[in-house]
Design a protein that fits this description.
6-stranded mixed sheet; KH_dom-like_a/b; alpha/beta; GTP binding; GMP Synthetase, Chain A, domain 3; ribosome biogenesis; Rossmann fold; GTP-bd; repeat; about 20% strand
């Protein structure tokens, strides 16, 4: 990105609305109530030909203690330190408040480039507020309407000269999934697994129930308090994405809101938060399902893991708060047994014990993520697949429903990310689901693909009888010939 722009201001002045407009998507939650945004959210912004990183921040409040508001303020001040340009937003309809004056003074000291924005400036009701903004001593206020898009050309003209001071770099973070393999895979193509780079970082989503320790875990990996944490359940409301280099691997990690049972999700805001977390799963390549060691594998944990599998994402299960567990060996044995029984579709997926508080087990978690990523990208040679298929058929031939023998003739890998295989066979619609599961489990075990979703498609080859359809035609010709002779 060419530069980083942080949007700061009091609660409910319209920061998230402008953030969504700049990134072109509804990434940040927006609601009429103040204080919806609590974490720092980064996005890739586009304004004309400008490409830059924009950070949405929590509303600045006059609190310096260890309360939720105080922690939110410290997080926002860290965003100001991180950003190249700081956009200070006020509500033009409300006018300048004492809190605005306090933070304008802080920004003058902390940020080299401050752009003063009077938001909600459409209509005559905003005129007085725009004039008041001059008193903040941050230069001429820029009139904007984040909701209606007014004033965006003026914002472009202000940002353009600043953008020339920073190196330009465009990055596409969208994960590539369901990669179609155009040709049959040879023996020499098996290890062609794409390595994560700064331009294409590995995308990891951390999901789980509220208060499982997702934000604390990511902060520990980062080595700094970038995400808001605390004893209160449900602090995280957005799916926040953070770039990092973890043990030499470029990653983009999504911290998501805790997902509760649908019946317990009552507030409109929490419904938005949960759907935001589901979207993060779709953006990810590897999904880390974080469990609480005290109450693992509740119904909601199983649903989250099943969702990741259905979306075709590689899954790692991490059990948090392991530092306070007393009977570790017995507990681990019970966890593995429950995992295999409750999530058979993810058989063999990595199960790692960690402590987000102490950092113990993070290296194991990193290794599990990389192993799951490699399996998710695995490509199996066509010749090896067909040798394997012959052995599976000899060991357990397919059934013959209604006396019709099903022939499995040929197999190849059609996709990766996740691995997808096609079997050419007769009567694919009559092959029972149990036999498909038998093949999938064999693929997992024999080609070392534990835990990753595997897609297996049965495809018919059509009837091989070259005389089909010709009998009636020949019979008609013969009848015509005989009629002529008879005449």
């Amino acid at each position: 990105m060419s530069f980083t722009l942080a949007i700061v201001g009091r609660p409910n002045v319209g920061k998230s609305t402008l953030f969504n407009r700049l990134v072109g998507k509804k990434l940040a939650l927006v609601d009429d109530q103040p204080g919806v945004t609590r974490d720092l959210r980064e996005g890739e912004a586009r304004l004309g030909d400008l490409r830059f990183t924009v950070i949405d921040t929590a509303g600045l409040e006059d609190a310096t203690d260890n309360s939720l508001e105080g922690r939110m303020r410290r997080l926002t001040e860290r965003a100001v330190d991180m950003a190249d340009i700081c956009m200070f937003m006020i509500d033009a309809r409300t006018g300048v408040t004492p809190t605005d004056e306090l933070f304008a003074d802080i920004l003058r000291r902390k940020s080299a480039h401050v752009i003063l924005v009077a938001n909600k400036a459409e209509g005559n009701a905003a005129e007085a507020g725009v004039l008041e903004a001059y008193s903040l001593g941050l230069g001429e206020p820029l009139r904007l309407s984040g909701e209606h898009g007014e004033g965006m050309p003026d914002l472009y003209s202000v940002l353009m000269p600043l953008a020339e001071k920073f190196e330009s770099e465009a990055v596409d973070h969208s994960p590539v999934t369901d990669v179609v393999l155009d040709e049959e895979i040879g023996e020499d193509e098996v290890e062609s697994i794409p390595e994560p780079t700064d331009a294409k970082p590995l995308q990891v989503a951390v999901v789980g129930r509220p208060n499982a320790g997702k934000s604390t875990l990511i902060n520990k990996i980062l080595g700094e308090d970038r995400l808001l944490t605390g004893p209160e359940a449900g602090i995280t409301r957005d799916a926040i994405s953070l770039r990092m280099n973890w043990n030499g691997v470029p990653m983009r990690v999504f911290d998501t809101a805790g997902m509760r049972k649908k019946a317990k999700v009552q507030e409109k805001l929490e419904k938005l938060s949960v759907s935001d977390g589901l979207r993060a799963v779709k953006f990810a390549e590897v999904v880390v399902v974080l469990l609480d060691a005290d109450i693992p594998f509740e119904q909601q944990d199983l649903r989250i893991a099943d969702l990741a599998e259905r979306e075709g994402r590689s899954v790692v299960v991490a059990v948090n708060k392991w530092d306070i567990e007393d009977n570790k060996q017995e507990k681990l044995r019970d966890l593995k047994e429950a995992f295999g029984r409750l999530l058979p579709q993810l058989r063999g997926a990595p199960l790692v014990t960690v402590s987000a508080k102490t950092g113990k087990g993070l290296d194991r978690l990193h290794d599990a993520i990389m192993r799951a990523y490699r399996v998710w990208n695995r490509r199996v040679p066509t010749a090896a697949l067909n040798r394997w298929l012959v052995g599976m058929l000899e060991q357990h031939p397919p059934p013959a429903p209604q006396g019709k023998r099903i022939k499995l003739r040929y197999m190849t890998q059609a996709k990766s990310r996740p691995p997808g295989f096609v079997v050419m066979c007769s009567h694919p619609d009559k092959l029972p689901e149990s036999y498909t599961r038998y093949l999938v489990n064999g693929l997992r075990e024999d080609f070392d693909m534990p835990g990753t979703p595997i897609r297996l498609y049965m495809r018919g080859q059509g009837d091989k009888n070259p005389y089909k359809g010709k009998r009636a035609k020949n019979a008609g010709a013969l009848a015509k010939h005989l009629n002529k002779r008879g005449g």
